[in-house]
Amino acid sequence: MRLVGLAACAGWLVVVVGCGDSGGGAIRDGGGGDVPGDPGDAGGGACTTAAECGGAVCDPATHTCTTVVPCTGHAECGLAAHCGADGTCAPSVTGSPCAADGNCTSGESCTGGFCGCGGQSYAASKVPPNVLIVLDRSSSMNDAIAGGTKWSVAKAAIADLLAAHGGEIRFGLALYPGQDQTCATGQSCGAGAVFVDPGDATAVSSINTFLGGAHTCSFGTPTAEELTALESYAGLEDAGRANYILLITDGQSTCNDPIPVVTALQSQTPAVKTFVVGFGSSVDPVELNGMAQEGGTAIAGGPPYYYVAGDAASLGAAFATIAGSVLSCSYTLSGVPPDLDKLYIYENQQPISRDTAHAGGWDYDAATNQVTFFGAACQALQSGQVTDLTIVYGCPIDIG
User: Where would you tag: which of 30, 227, 267, 345 has the fewest CB atoms within 10 A of its CB?
Assistant: First the structure.
């Protein structure tokens, strides 16, 4: 059997119902019987389908079996045949491309653009995660670094992050301290505010617009207080997707200890993981390492376990790495698989096994109707290594 080749693009893929191999051996006729596999057998009489032509096709114009019928589309090839990549018609087998059921062999149907044994065709869409950017805007962010101030460099790096990943990550924005855009109101050891809720692409313009008019504040660095306020923030209580905080700070917390708060966020249901970016040389490495470890995002091989940035290039690199690590490995199906034992998944034509322990492979969540990948299977999707993601319901396909 040939691979039903379906490439994922723009966050979408096609799920095709597969079935057993119909190629080779005797050719099935329209009534389900077998006819000899010899193109010459039907050459002396009229034909109606390629199944009567033993490896050739039935020219729909002359109703004779022939090996060469030029084509530009499947409809020109008659029954049980399709238009090949070389611009000529060829007999169809399971997995052949098609425009209608008639292009497929007897007993198969055209599902999702490919011949198969019939059934449901699912669409599957990526589930973008929520990422709330939590930006420290204490007065020290006005300090000069290469390329401007930490404040101007941070805003530019965020704009670049949104431009690169705003279509696949639901970004939001919180600033602290201060309760408004210009920081006219606020208090020491007081939380800031969420100014843009995590959302789809429309949130990108809202974040850029807000940051364009935002000012720094002189109320200290109340990191713990800001994170505490986010424990009850509904925008990160989305059970249908992953939820993250991306914290960027340039100094030590001036009020309470933020590490226990990060622990509490990670322990919530659903969990909220915290990425930590230390911007500049005035941070407290012990505090930031503890936050990264408790936040479930510690860099392997650390310390440092948090992301270290001192200029525009290193801040942009940190953002790019973090964005790559949160890209979705979950797909919502448009139909519900009746039997998970008949769900087969392939990455780049290699079978991926189900793993209910979530160490690798994939698993299915009936509550959300989502397939989620884990371990190396997820990493391959996030890194862009997977160019062909195929999900087949019904029976496995024979790769190669």
Answer: 267
The pLDDT mean for the chain works out to 86
Q: End-to-end distance of the chain based on CA atoms, in angstroms?
A: 8
As a three-state string, the secondary structure of the chain is: CCCCCCCCECCEEEEEECCCCCCCCCEECCCCCEECCCCCCCCCCCCCEHHHCCCCEEECCCCEEECCCECCCHHHHCECEEECCCCEEEECCCCCECCCHHHCCCCCEEECCEEECCCCCEEEEECCCEEEEEEECEHHHHCEECCEEHHHHHHHHHHHHHHHHCCCCEEEEEEECCCCCCCCCCCCCCCCEEEECCCCCHHHHHHHHHHHCCCCECCCCCHHHHHHHHCCCHHHCCCCCCEEEEEEECCCCCCCCCHHHHHHHHHCCCCEEEEEEEECCCCCHHHHHHHHHHCCCCCCCCCCCCEEECCHHHHHHHHHHHHHHHCCCEEEECCCCCCHHHEEEEECCEEECECCCCCCEEEEECCCCEEEEEHHHHHHHHCCCCCCEEEEECCCCCCC
